[in-house]
Amino acid sequence: MANLINTAMSGLSAAQAALNPTSNNISSYNVTGYTRQTTVLTAANSTLGAGGWIGNGAFVSGVQREYDSFITNQLRAANTQSSSLTTRYNQMSKIDNMLSGSTNTLATALQGFFSSVQTLVSNAEDSSSRQSVLGKADGLVNQFKVADQYLRDQDKQVNTSISSSVDQINNYTSQIANLNDQISRLTAVGGGASPNDLLDQRDQLVSELNGIVGVEVSVQDNSTFNITMANGYTLVQGSTSRQLAAVASSDDPARTTVAYVDPTAGNIEIPEKLLTTGSLGGVLTFRSQDLDKTRNTLGQLAYAFADAFNAQHKQGYDVDGDPGTDFFTIGTPSTLSNAKNTGTGALTAAISDRTQVQATDYKLIKTDTGWNVTRLADNTAFAVTPDASGNLSFDGLTISVSGTANKNDSFTVKPVVNAITNMSVAITDESKIAMAASATSGKSDNTNGQALLNLQNSKVIGNTKSFNDAYASMISYVGTTTSTLKTSSTTQANVVTQLSDQQQSISGVNLDEEYGNLQRYQQYYLANAQVLQTANTLFDAILNVR
User: Fold this and answer.
1) Rounded to an integer, what distance in angstroms lies between the CA atom of residue 78 and that of residue 55?
2) Structural domain of residue 364, as residue ranges?
3) Is the predicted pLDDT of residue 488 greater than 60, yes or no?
4) Which of 417, 434, 452 is the last residue of a domain?
5) pTM of the entire structure?
6) Which of 109, 352, 368, 447 is close enough to 437 for a disulfide, judged by CB 3.0 to 4.6 Å?
7) Residues 6+ away with beta carbon under 8 Å from 347
8) Which of 381, 401, 417 is the last residue of a domain?
């Protein structure tokens, strides 16, 4: 009789225990990151009786999370790629919107300038037409500056985004390390049973961290997460977290990059080529591949235009019969020394052939016999040997070296990145516009003016493109890249959705299913209560017989 009562009581306890996770599942239905919990019921050890082994009911062996680590890892990998592509697309679309506007575009300003030159060619002695050329030139320069400043502002925004991302990463890793410690201690107190709510919190933090920078998760002692990034940089190890820092790049102090904070060595810059996933990887890739190329292409266009116009203008003569001067001022190449260089070397760059200048920055590294040069736009590497004067020549550039550069010292050369910053109209007096072909031909002579007008359709950029062709090519590149990124982002988002659905089919709460469980465990409880009532009735009957 006692066995019957104990068995019924075990069923009541099991039913009550099973109802608690069910109730928790229902109440946590809308909690982000919650993982569905189920009660694990196990049969109690049987007892040998007169008729053989008799069961002793059931007991609760644990409450487990419905969790699939394989699908979760797949989802993390897909999500960090999606975050990278989406971030890059969002940034690139801003450039696309700016350049593809229907009004006040660079193409419109360029066309307006040459239209004013054409008007002046038709009436070279007209002072108002000359003044119009200067006004349109100012407008063109201003349009160059507006576009360039927009891109520079984006560069600054990338710096801000990197700093913000680093702060978020450090915050997440600290929380994860703290949860590791709590989970480890509570698991030990619980005799191996893990605190499911803390596991959910940790998984959610890892997911959010993974959205910023792709991470690898390894499990230690069945409860502790160790987290690494970028080919092995440890972010979390047990209850200890490592910090990242947003620092000025040693290659370019105007740019912020990511460093790993080593307790001994200090800040160690992480190569940006290792940071390609998550929103952080997306913004870094955008800067190095998309933003820099667009800025350099725009700078190349401005430089080629100004230099070609200046060269032709100086072949003519103004109203007073004086030789033409530079019509535009234009910025010169810039060079940067790496902050970690050990030598005293410094580089000075000058453009020797406008037609050969490319829309790219360069990285130069000193070797034993010469220099290794890398075009950063396409990562093409080649060796350059100094001439008798110690100068380096490549891609229309002449680089002079002063001081002593040690082996492995590195430098960055930016041929056209500052071309627009220092661009202006050099002529303020309309009479100085050199329209004539000779000093004595008179102010009605438009021969050189016609040559200036012909530059509009001349292949002055790389001997292959006109100004309009180059601008159209830049617009096409930006538009195509934006469209490709949009497609890739959408495709990857669909992959994330599919994997998320798979993950939720296992770990997510289904209210219909939980309602069914609620009824099932209720009937289970009532049935065991009926067994207990029956046992009491039998016990009372025995007492009455006595």
Assistant:
1) 49
2) 332-417
3) yes
4) 417
5) 0.90
6) 447
7) 335, 337, 364, 399, 400, 401, 402, 411, 413
8) 417
